[in-house]
Amino acid sequence: YVLGKCDVGLPQAIAKGVEDWCTANKMRLNEGKCKVLLINENKDSSPLITLSNKPLEVVSSYKYLGIEINTELNSTEQWHRTQKRIGPVPYLLKQLKLNGFREEILVSVYRSHVLSHIGYGSPIFISATAAIHDEMERAQSRAFNIIGISEEVAREKYSIGTVKQFIEHTCVNTIKRMLTNPDHKLAFDPVRETRGAFRFRL
């Protein structure tokens, strides 16, 4: 929850709304596993949020479905997590190449074991720092060198552009799928609400 210029009681109202929904649907929340992450410059005004009258722990970062979210809203932790996953790929590519695997297979391995992880984190990486983007591009260049292809060949033959282009393309396609899906929460007729007209809904 992003705490901004709004009713200070809204975070607790959200927690209470989730708790009431769970009760109505015969579900029980594990308060010990529920955390609070606040993005708020004024740390002194952070509200106490409870579930079942038990205070929730305030954390500076939280992993949700493989995505690292933190109070700074930066992508550093997510990139470090991704680096650990894609780190062994250069060695894998070298071994496959030594054993005679074709160029097309090596490119497919790169797509599956590197681009897939970067694509999953694209909503976070879209706002990554220039330094992180540079590290991504270097990682891709290293993989291309191992495979034995140039950036031009990767682009023309395999439709692999820069990592930045891949991230932007992934984000745009994701938004398009969401907006064209009539069952998605974002697929609605845009109605502009003023701050005064806003009401909490669950």
Structure notes:
With 202 residues, this protein is mainly α. 50% of the residues lie in helices and 8% in strands. Helix 3 runs antiparallel to helix 4 (103-120) and helix 3 runs parallel beside helix 6. It is elongated and about 65 Å long. The two termini are 14 Å apart.
Please give the largest β-sheet.
2 strands, parallel
Helix/strand class: mainly alpha
Strand order of the largest sheet: 1-4
Order of helices and strands: HEEEEEEHHHHHHH
Uncertain ranges: 191-202
Put simply, the count of helices is 8
Helix content: 40-55%
Rg from alpha-carbon coordinates: 22 Å
How much strand content do the residues show? 5-15%
Distance between the termini: 14 Å
